[in-house]
Amino acid sequence: MNLTFWQERWQRNEIGFHQDTINPFLLAFWPRLGVAQDQRVLVPLCGKTQDMLWLAQQGHRVVGVEVSTIAVEAFFKENSLQAEVLQRSNFAHWSCGPYEIICGDFFALTKAQIGQIDAVYDRASLVALPPERRHEYAQQLKRLVTAEKKVLLITFVYPQHEMDGPPFSVTEQEVDALYADTWTVTLLHTEDILADKPRFRDKGVTKMEEKVYLFSAKSG
Fold first, then answer.
1. Under DSSP, is residue 50 helix (H, G, I), strand (E, B) or coil?
2. Parallel, antiparallel, or unpaired for β 61-66 and 40-44?
3. Residues 199-211: pLDDT tens digits?
4. What are phi and psi of 128, to 5 degrees?
């Protein structure tokens, strides 16, 4: 799975992963992070998620990263935002008000290019990646975000053999293996969601849970 895969998904409008409403777990658990107004929140692999609107409404500055120009254009157009676009190195920076979306390869982004990040919201990034790329993704996130910053992560867990991802199943054990060396990883919530996800039932999935994690600075 590479950049072309996601660009082609957007070109064909195969975006079943996109949610037209604010994620309820974001609403319920974001306050646990204690992110102050005017701080910069990273939303990796952001697509055109409406969650960015809610984060901005809380007073945060939102920094999305997305490989598809179609997705970035759609976010600004569909929300009646007139973006300024600046090309910097291999990235196009789209900005308007509290929003900045960096269009390009997340894995090639440097800390200098993205600037100070105060918190991270990952709903559709880790689960979008196959197993062989998740370690690389976690390492890149650690390079971009210092260990004292907090992260809200949302994952799916289901029998992986029953459906090809994305979204992929990411177990609690894998989350710990990827991130516990840098952050204290706390499982906040687990919910059985299959009854509300007919598109997954139709693919033969027999069990699906959504899990919410908080990453916080290690004590001591």
1. coil
2. parallel
3. 899 999 999 999 9
4. -85, -10
